[in-house]
Write a structure and sequence with these properties.
Length: 351
């Protein structure tokens, strides 16, 4: 969290100082995060997301007016693979302007300062599907909308189809996968099976975050909220349906809406293993109280994967934004390259 001072002037003749935050301003950043996310343990969030991220320490930009902290935004470095080569990207997050400083262009100034520093920080792109209130400031800061992230939903019970609940036993039996050639097992810390899965998957991806064992351990097993549970999906061995077999996928699941929805937070698998992984997750979900199983993917990616074959249908969506430095690598702006999932988020719970 370091950088030179960069005073900026916006409307009404008021001068804001917008610059990279220093290490001794951790308390100011923590206070802003607490205001932004009421009830959050800000120190735990900073320890996990800002300081322990395997992609690197977070980069934060902070704004002051007459010595008072007015707002901030952060980049959380993520290790990416681009056409087989490792590169550094970042998620944008924790963008917040205190209410009394809003409607004066400060959000745009913060994002502009972050983009200005990207090249010096070695960050090839910042990407994500931000909340509605951050879309306009991000676009003013140079982000481009290159696609949409869609929610793909699979009904599990009668009520999810708008049918009376007494029909649940019949409908649930019809919707439950008859056969699953794989099953879910809890993921271990630094699980070597995840590295094995990632090596197979990475060979196919044109652009996406590295989802190796170090990433999954940090992103899910070490997350403060402990609501998103990580699993390895194993193809059943010849000795029986629950015997040890070949690991084919890694995933993370989170119950939402009082258990009515089971969210597939993330799923990593080779294209050939993707159908079996979805069926295994659907069968697992059928044994819970969930009425709906859903997952968020880029709309183009979900269509390419023919999600409907596993009973998933495209629902609501939100913009997917990418920003690159001046004269940056334009491959980051190609929506057909991207793999994006729920692990590409600074949130450790969606509930």
């Amino acid at each position: 969290m370091r950088g030179a001072r960069a005073p900026r002037t916006v409307d009404r003749g008021v001068a804001f100082e917008v610059r990279a935050a220093r290490p001794d301003e951790r308390g100011e950043v923590s206070a802003l995060v607490r205001e932004m996310i009421p009830g959050v343990d800000a120190d735990a969030r900073l320890h996990w997301l800002y300081e322990r991220n395997p992609g690197g320490t977070a980069r934060t930009w902070i704004a002051y007016e007459r010595g008072e902290a007015a707002g901030c935004t952060s980049y959380f470095p993520f290790r990416l693979v681009l056409d087989g080569a490792p590169v550094l990207g970042a998620l944008g997050g924790d963008g917040f302007v205190r209410p009394r400083f809003r409607r004066r262009g400060l959000g745009g100034l913060l994002h502009d300062a972050a983009r200005r520093d990207m090249h010096a920080l070695g960050i090839g792109c910042m990407y994500g599907a931000p909340g509605a209130m951050n879309v306009t400031p991000l676009k003013h800061g140079g982000s481009r909308e290159i696609g949409h992230v869609a929610r793909w939903a699979r009904p599990l019970r009668a009520t999810a189809l708008g049918l009376p609940s007494p029909l649940d036993p019949v409908v649930s039996a019809l919707l439950r996968p008859k056969r699953a050639r794989a099953h879910l097992t809890p993921m271990l810390r630094d699980d070597p099976r995840v590295d094995q899965i990632w090596r197979t998957t990475a060979a196919e991806l044109r652009l996406g975050a590295m989802r190796d064992a170090a990433f999954y351990t940090w992103r899910f097993l070490d997350a403060p909220a402990q609501r998103q549970r990580a699993y390895v999906i194993v193809r059943s061995g010849s000795a029986g349906p629950r015997s040890d077999g070949q690991p084919i996928a890694a995933c993370a699941l989170e119950p939402m809406h009082g258990g009515r929805t089971l969210r597939v937070v993330d799923l990593v698998a080779s294209s050939g293993a993707w159908p079996d992984a979805l069926v295994a997750i659907a069968r697992h979900a059928a044994d819970t109280t969930a009425r709906v199983l859903d997952i968020k993917l880029l709309a183009l990616d979900g269509r390419r994967r023919a999600m409907w074959r596993a009973g998933f249908f495209e629902r609501d969506s939100k913009p997917f934004l990418v920003v690159i430095p001046q004269r940056g690598d334009r491959r980051f702006l190609d929506p057909t390259r991207w793999f994006y999932g729920g692990a590409d988020s600074d949130l450790d719970t969606f509930a």
